[in-house]
Amino acid sequence: MSRGEKTGPAPRALERLEAVLADLGRVVVAFSGGADSALVAAVATRSLGASRVLCATAVSASLGADDHAHCARLADEWGLRWVAVDTHELDDPAYVRNDLDRCYHCKRELMDVLQPLAEVEQATVVLGVNLDDLADHRPGQRAAAERGAVFPLVVAGLDKAAVRSVSQAIGLSTWDRPAAACLASRVPHGMPVTFGILERVATAESSLRQLGFTALRVRHYGDAARIEVPLGALPRVIELREQVVEAVQDAGYRYVTLDLEGLRSGNLSRAALAVKEAAR
Predict the structure, then answer these.
(1) Fewest CB within a 10 Å sphere: which of 63, 152, 197, 260?
(2) What is the pTM (predicted TM-score) of this model?
(3) Half-sphere exposure of 27 (CA within 13 A, CB side)
(4) CA 143, CA 110: separation in Å to the nearest integer?
(5) Residue pLDDT, tens place only, 100-145
(6) What SS3 state is found at 47?
(7) How far lies 151's CA from each of 81, 158, 239, in Å?
(8) Beta-strand relationship, 27-30 and 82-86
(9) What span, in angstroms and rounded, lies between the C-alpha atoms of 67 and 34?
(10) Backbone dihedral angles phi then psi of residue 252, each to the nearest 5 degrees
């Protein structure tokens, strides 16, 4: 990790982030391995020192094996003080119910696991939430804030573009990592989340990544899977149609469909919100 040039917007944003972390002193980073939490983890470790930064990855059925391995690899490469901790969202009926507040219950479980670590560390739990995230329906942010978590990127005024710019400037490989979300986000609201569904989604997405699709979602609709990829990747899906169908059917789906609107993060929540609003 290199600091980069000390001119321009990226260094100024980096300085603001470092100042926020310095004020906190000691932190436990909720580390998912995405661009946001990776930037917080890397900058905190470099500026505060590894002894004052613990990076914790929540491991459950909603975290794909590929993402778990990615976090472990980054921790090793970057010299992070890292721990994997088990969370048990599927033991919570409110989470399994999968209503519009599912993420609230997920983050509540996460905080229940991270807060004891923070007490031992005499540290503050921090999450990789950026300014753009505040505009979306993300009840998990409320659950985390209610339990004392801090969002350093928000405090420092960094949106997603700034996160990527700063990450690139300091040499982080995650600067262009596609946005990701837990596997439960592939299940339409109102359909109960189960281990079997999450395992099926994870298997399908892992197989599609092996075909070269890095940014994707496999949305679960019972026997049918709806594949979302960026618009520019749609021709490639058609080109590899037979391999794509085989990969998804091998994961347990009978029907394989392609969403011609492309990849839209959070579209299941927006659709459920629209239905809820129309019913009023």
Answers:
(1) 260
(2) 0.90
(3) 30
(4) 9
(5) 999 999 999 999 999 999 999 999 999 999 999 998 788 999 999 9
(6) helix
(7) 20, 10, 42
(8) unpaired
(9) 9
(10) 120, 5
